[in-house]
Queue: 4 jobs
Job 1
Amino acid sequence: MEFLSTLWTSLLYLIGAGVCLLILLSIFLYVTTKPYPIVKRFKDEETFFDPVTKSRIKLPSINESSTLNLSVIVPAYNEEERLPPMLDETLEFLENRIKQHSSYKYEIIIVSDGSKDKTVQVAQTYAEKYGSEKLRCLELVENRGKGGAVRLGIQNARGATILFADADGASKFEDLVKLESALKDIIQCDPITDPEHVSAKVGLAIGSRAHLEKESLATRSLFRNILMYGFHFLVWLFTVKGIKDTQCGFKLFTRKAADICFQSLHVNRWAFDVELLYIAQKLNIPIAEIPIRWTEIEGSKVTPIISWIQMGCDLGLIWLKYTIGAWKIKSDKID
C-alpha cells in the first residue's frame, strides 16, 4: 500500500513538473515569437534569367491580376536527374491541352532551393527550348526548405490556379484533371475556360495516396510503419482533421486561396503541408481530397527517422504556437 502511495505521489509530481514546463515554454514562445511570418528574400531572387534574351527580368507578384490559366510550382533541391522526366511529362500534357484549347496558357516555375548540382542548368535548358513565358527558373541564393521554396514560387505566380508538384514526378501529372474537376465542383467555375472568375474564388484540391496505404504497408519495415502511423495520429491530434494524406506533393489552389494560405505560413520545412491545411481549415476554405496515381521514385531527400521526428516536433509547435496566440493567421474566415 505504501508502494502504491509513493508511486501515485511520484506520478503527480511528474505531471505537475510537466505542466510547469509547458507553461514556461508557452510563455517563452509567446514572448520570443513573431506572430506573422517574416519572409526573407534576396535582391537576386526578385528576377529570373531569360536564356533567350540573355537578360534578367523582374518577376511578377501574386498581388497582381492573373494572366494565365495555370502556374505549376516545382520546388527542386539537387534534382538534376529526376527533374527532366517530370518536366517532359508535364510539358507534354500542357502542350496537348493548348492544342485542345487554343486560349489556354500556363507557366512552370522551377524553384531551385539553393541547389549545388546542375538543377538550374537543366531548368534553363527547358526555358531556352519552350521560352520564359512558359518556363522560368527562380534560383534561390540559399536553401529555404521545401515550404519556403514553394512559398517564394507562389509569390511570383501568374496563374488563376496554382499547382505545386514535386520534382521527382512521383505523381502522374495528367491527374491534374481530377483535381481541376474537384475544384470546379467547389467553386462552380471552370479552370480551363473561365480563369478570370476562378482566380477570385477560394478553394483547394489536394492529391491523396491514402488509397495506396495497404500496398505500401507490405513493403515497409515494422518500425517505419509505426513511425508513419504515429505521424498520422499526431496530425489528427494536433492540427488537421478529416484529411488522410497531408503530405502528397500535388496540391491545386485557386489564386486567391494560395495567396491567403501562404501569407500566414510559418513552417518552411517538411511539415509545411500540415500548417497549410491547418490554416485552410481554420479559415473555412473548402478542401477536396482526391485519390491520384503515385509511384515511388528513388532519390528522396526525406530521411525517414530524422525527418519524421522533426515533423513530429513541428506538429507540436504548430499546435502550441497557434493555441497560445504566438502565431496568428492574417486573413479572416471565409463566409
Job 2
Amino acid sequence: MPPVPPQKELPNYVDSIWCAYSVSVLAAWNSEFVTYPLDLVKTRLQIQGEIANKKDAKLVKAPHRGMFRTTLGIIREEGVPKLWQGVSAALFRHMIYSGTRIVSYITFKERVFKKSKKDVFPIWQSAICGVSAGAFAQFIASPTDLLKVQLQMEGKRRLMGLPPRVTGLYDAFNKIVKTSGYRGLWKGSIPNVQRAALVNLGDLTTYDTAKRFILRNTSLEDNHFCHLLASACAGLVAATLGTPADVVKTRVMNQPLDENGR
C-alpha cells in the first residue's frame, strides 16, 4: 500500500484578519444580490400604513398588500429590474458592515475571552461578542442603510404621484448632507444599532450553539450540510429577534430630514 502523502499546511494568510474581512464581504455580496428582492419587498411592507406626511392623502389611500402581492405589484407596475433598486447602497454597506462584524467577533472571542478547559466557548461569552460586534459594525455602516432605504422607496413614491426625492446613491448622499449635514447620515442609527445587536445575538451566537448541538446529538459530521442546518437555525432566530427594531429603523429612515439631522 503506497504511503499517504503528507497534507500541505495552509498558508498563514488564510487565518489573517484581512483574509477574514475580504471573504466576509465577498460572501455577503453574493447573498445580498441573490436575496435583495426580498429585502426590497420587506422594506415596502414595513412602510405600508405609515403616513410620512399628513398632507399627502395619497399615502393614506395606498392599498395594503402581502408579500406575494407586493412582489407581483413591483414587477407589473415598475418592472423586474426595480426589484434590485438600491442594491448599490446594499453592496456598499456590506463593504463596511459585514467585514467589520466578522473581524470584530473573531477579535472579541480570541482576545477578550478564552475558551474553557473543555475547549468550548460559553454561550454567554459568545452572546456578548455577537452583540458587541454587531452594534459596533452597524453604527459605522448606518449611513449606507439610510441611503438604501431612501432608494428602495423611490419606485413607490413615483407610482403614488409624489416627486422623487433622490435619483441615485450619490444624489441621495449629497442631498442628505446638504439638508442636515453629516450628522443626518446617522438618522435612525439608534434603532439600527439595536436591530444589529439583536440580529447578531441570534445569528452568531445561535450558529455556534446550533452547530455544536448538531455535532453532539446527531451522526452528522462537520460538513456543509451541518453548516447549512446551523445557518438556518441562526437565520430564523436572528430574523425573529431583529424584526421589531428593523420596522422602527425603516420607518425612521424613510421620513424626511430636517436641518438638525432628525
Job 3
Amino acid sequence: MFYHLQSERVETYQLFEEGHEAYLRTGPQYDFDHYRQLVHEITQAFCGISKEVLEIKGRLHHEFDRPDLSEHIEKLQSKEKQKLELTAKLQLARQRAQDHPEDEGCQEKIQEIKQEIIKNKEALSEIMQDFKYDSEECD
C-alpha cells in the first residue's frame, strides 16, 4: 500500500507539471482560474495521500512495533513537503522567466531550483531504499 501511495504521488506531480505547462501556454494573459482549480485538485490529492501515509506510519509504530520504519516515513513526508515547495518555486520562476525573457537571473534561478529538486529526489530515493531494506529485514 505504501509503495502504491508513493507512485500516486509521482503521478500527481506529473499532472501538476503538465497543468503548469498548459497554464504557461495561456500567457501572457494567463488562465489563472483554470490553474487555481488545478492547484486546488493537486493539493487535495496530496493531502489525501499524506493522510493515508500517516495512517500507515502510525500503524507501523504502534501495531507492528516498527518505530524504525515509521521514522523513515516521517523523513519521507518532510522531504515530500520540501519537494512540493520547490516545485511551486520552480513554477513561479518559470513564469517569471517567460514574462521577463531579458532577465538572465531568471534562468539562473530556474537552474538553482532544479538542482535543489535533484538533491531532494536523491534524498527521497535514499529514504525509500532504507525503508525497503529495513522492512525486508524482518521478513
Job 4
Amino acid sequence: MLSRFSTLRSLFKVENVLLLRRYSSQNTINLSDPAVQTFLKNLMVEHDNLHTKSRRTLEEAKRLQEIKPIVTVLDQRITLFDSIESLKELNKRDGQDEEMQKLIKEEAQLYLKHIKEIDNELQSILLEPYFTEGGVMVEVVAGAGGQEAMLFARELLSLYESYANYKDWEVDIASLDVSDIGGIRKGSLLINGLGAPELMRMEAGVHRVQRIPVTEKGGRIHTSTVSVAVLPQPTEVELNIPDRDLSIETKRASGAGGQHVNTTDSAVRILHVPTGTVVECQEGRSQIKNKQIAMQKLRTLLLQKQLEEQSSKINSERKSQVGSMNRNEKIRTYNYPQDRITEHRDGGGSLHNLKGFMEGGEPLEQLQTSLLRHQRYQIVMAEINDFNQYKKETEN
C-alpha cells in the first residue's frame, strides 16, 4: 500500500514538473529576430564601455554584474559562428579530398550542436529571475466564507511558515488573531532571506478555496477567499525611527500560548506617535524578541504608508480606478474535491496533489519560479521593444 502511495506521489510530481515546463517553454526569446540581435549587440557595447571605465558608480557596477553573464555567453556564440565560417571557407578550396570534406562536415556538426547548447544557456540567463537578500512581511486575512475562510487562512499561514523553513529563511510570527475553532481572522509573518522578496511577492492577491468545510453537515462544497499582502521590510538605514517618536508598553500575554501566558510581561505594544500607528507582539516568550519583531513590523507598515503616499501623489487618478490590484485579484484556486491547484496568472497553470503543495516545499517553489520567469520574459521583451523603438526614432 505504501509503495503504491509513493508511486502515485512520484507521478504527481513528474506531472506537475511537466506542466510547469510546458508553460515556461512558451516564454522563449527568438534569438534570430533582428530586433533581438540588435538589442544583444547593444548589450555587448554597453558592457565594453562599463568594463573600460576606471571608476564606476554603484548603479554602473550593478549593471555590469547584471549583463556580464549574458555577454560572456554571447562571446562564446560569436566564436562558434566564426569557426563555422572558417570551415565554410576551407571547404570552398579546390583539391579537398573526401576524407577532408568528411572531417569538415563532422566538425561543423559539432559546432552547431554546441551553438544549440549555448542558445539554451543564453535563454536561461536572459530569463533567470534576480534574487536579492531582504525581508518581507506576509499578511494573511480571512475574507468571504466566515469560519471556513479563517481555517484556510491558518493553513495558508502554516504553508508560508513551512516554506520559509524549506528555503532556510529566517521566519517569525508577527501577529495572530485566532478564531473560536482554530482558524485565524488575520495573521502575519516576518520572513528574511535570499530570494524572499521576489518569491513571496508571487503570493500577493486573493486566494480562493473550494471544499466541503468541517462545519458543513450537508456535504455541500463552499467557496471561500483569503487575501495575502506582501510588504517589503525596510532596514534601519532605510527607515530610521527616533526613540522620541515611540511609546512602548509591556504587558502580560493573553490568549492561547502555554505556561508563559499571564505569568511574564513578554507582550510588547508600540505606538508611533506622529502617525498613530500601533503594533503589538506577544507570540514569543522573550520580551526582547517580541520587541524586535514589533519594531520590524512597525518599520514595514510605515514604509508601506510612505510608498502609498508617493504612489498617490504620482498617480492618484489611476489608483482610484484600480485600487490595490494585487489584493483584489483572484490569483489562485485550491480545489479540494478535484485535488487541483489552478494558478490564474500567466506563467502558471494547474497542478495536482494539494496535500503535497500545502506542505510548503518544492511544488510552491517551482510555481513561483515559473511565474517569475514569465515576468522576466515580459520585462526583457519590453526592453527589446523600447530599445528598438528608441533606435528608430533617433535615426529618423
